[in-house]
Amino acid sequence: MSGGPEERWSIARRLTLFLAAMVAILALVSWGMVTSFAREAAGRTQDNILAASATSIAETLRSESGEVRLELPYSAFSMLGALSEDRVFYRVAVGDEVLTGHADLEGPDVVPGEVVFATLPYRGAVVRAVSLQRTILSDGAAVPVTVTLAQTREGVQAIAAGLSRQAAVLSVLVFVLAVGIAAFAVRASLRPLNTMAQHLATRGPSDLRPLRRQGPPELMPLVKALNRLMERLGGSLRRSEDFIAEAAHRVRTPLAVVRTQAEIALHSVEEEGQKQTLRRVIRAVDESSRSASQLLDHAMVSFRADDLTRERLDLPALAGNVAEALRPTAQMKDIDIALDLDPATALGDEILIQNALRNVLDNAIKYSPAETKVTLSVRNGGGEARVTVVDEGPGFGTASAGELTERFRRGARAEGVVGSGLGLTIAEEALRAHGGRLDLSGDEDGRGACVSLILPAV
Amino acid sequence: MRFLLVEDNHELAEGVVQRLGLDGHAVDHAATLGDAEDCLAVADYDLILLDVMLPDGDGRDFLSRHRDRIETPVIVLTARSQISDRVGALDQGADDYITKPFDFSELEARCRAVLRRRGGTAKNEITLGQAVFDPTAGTLRHGEEVLDLRNREIRLLEVFARNPGQILSKGQLLDRLFSMDADVTENAIEVYVGRLRKKLDGVGVRIETVRGLGYRMDT
Ligand SMILES: Nc1ncnc2c1ncn2[C@@H]1O[C@H](COP(=O)(O)OP(=O)(O)OP(=O)(O)O)[C@@H](O)[C@H]1O
Ligand SMILES: [Mg+2]
Predict the structure, then answer these.
(1) If we measure between CA atoms, which residue out of A365, A308, A378 comes closest to residue A331?
(2) pLDDT in tens, A107-117
(3) Domain B126-218 belongs to what architecture?
(4) Nearest-angstrom CA–CA distance, B3 and B46
(5) Size of interface A-B (CB pairs under 8 A)
(6) What pLDDT digit, counting tens, does each position of A219-252 carry?
(7) What's the predicted TM-score (pTM) here?
(8) Domain range summary for chain A, segments of one domain joined by +
(9) Which of A62, A100, A103, A426 is 20 to 30 Å apart from A331, CA to CA?
């Protein structure tokens, strides 16, 4: 599977990151706003004080015997000092002539009747300056007097910076808190999804029941889609099961007709040649029927092994059932099935283990001569549960276990015995799927076969 | 024995009726579940052979519906081999199942096993001279003595008992008894006949050798 990194990221991670980014932007913006408000407010305060001071200076201007006189009021400067320790500069000029103060202080151009502000560099610092003009009557003539007052901005900036710092700390706190809440909220919101996933994961392979329609409404479309999918899946499984059943029925019923007719004919014909032909017909029917069964069983074992159910298996009970099912077949050859069952439990799929044991026991009966004994035992020990089938037949001879468990592999003594060569393959696959194994052995002198189904015990 | 065969394929049904007839069994045939109910209402059967796929329903559903009413043992004829299917049949009250196409010796062995398990056997007894032969239980009762017979001996004796006075060739017996067991030779027939003769000693019936033709049982 491929996909960009953002596709592989978990939803929780993506949502948390997204929310964090959003909170970060909000925090930055609000910090920026607080900072600029603070700067503006401090600036406006300074402006107001500057304007008030300049006005009060201008008010002390008077004309005395043709000369403009000024008495600098102390209060004007103390007002400015109240704001900060910033340096203050001033200039009072009558026309173009500087009356008092710093002659090189160039304020903003004055507009009659208005208070004009400007921020400008002065003596290596940035100052806020205010200029206003007042007209004084001197000797019957109107003389314009310009008052310029300037103050450095360190105090204002310090206040603004302090406010900005506090805003920054607050923003970071809000950010951390918001991200925490976001992460928690994301996790909590995704919990129903995780619960659903867990629920689905623990289901057995054939459990296609619909999901319960509970949970947040956002999940309902998913739940509905899943339920529809499972319904369709169940339907097509049922259809294919029905189809297999129907197909098997249609193929096997005519085969049964052929076999039955051949058996009847076998009883009425006298000539050995015809009898031989009929026996061959019956044999061919049996071969094809056996192959069909074993192929189906093999497919079923592979299917079930893919996704194993693990229930507790009472092995002696299971062995007893399989033995009972095959006892009539054994009796046809007067073979005795002796049981020797110890208690043992394993975890697994009952149908698979039953099928495995059935194939092994079927072999023991099939390949043993009449009137012998087959022993079926269950043992528990060393962390293993063993179901063992021992017979008194010809044994495996020189064939190795690996060869005999191969698909469609039949042994040397299989001629004349109907079979498809899949029995041990099926048994082996079933055991492998359970973490167990199939053990084949025989006596040294080649008499008898001993096959063990070994499973991890619980 | 009396069988009820519920099977919708007429050719197969005919064959089964005929084949079981060869062994001396009476078979009634019902083609549908409805017919089967009619038959069960008027007659007693030793065994029901029930197909799973019938035109008016599933044989297994029929079983689970009527299990408490029908006491006759049932062997299901299934077309599938999957264990799950087999188990399904047993769960729903069948006594056993057999996969189509089936070997009649196996069917017979399964019928015998089912009947033995159910314990109802008395009516199929055959009188042989002074002894009573019960092919279902596999016993030969002679006065106080009850002899257990092995399966192949039972089947051989049953063939003789149902065809008294008739000459049966070794080949015929072989096909009847061992159907497809390739390892059995005609010599084996001699061995089993020898054993039967010993067990029938003093009963008043004898298995004679008809030179060149086979055997015949005289009562
Ligand atoms: N108990 C046994 N005694 C002697 N030979 C055996 C025994 N079990 C298996 N074999 C040999 O192993 C071979 C493989 O067995 P397997 O069960 O896989 O196939 P099969 O019996 O031939 O066919 P089927 O699929 O019908 O069972 C057999 O053909 C037979 O030769
Ligand atoms: Mg086999």
Answers:
(1) A365
(2) 888 888 888 99
(3) Orthogonal Bundle (1.10)
(4) 6
(5) 128
(6) 888 889 989 998 998 898 888 878 887 888 888 8
(7) 0.73
(8) 12-161, 203-307, 309-458
(9) A426
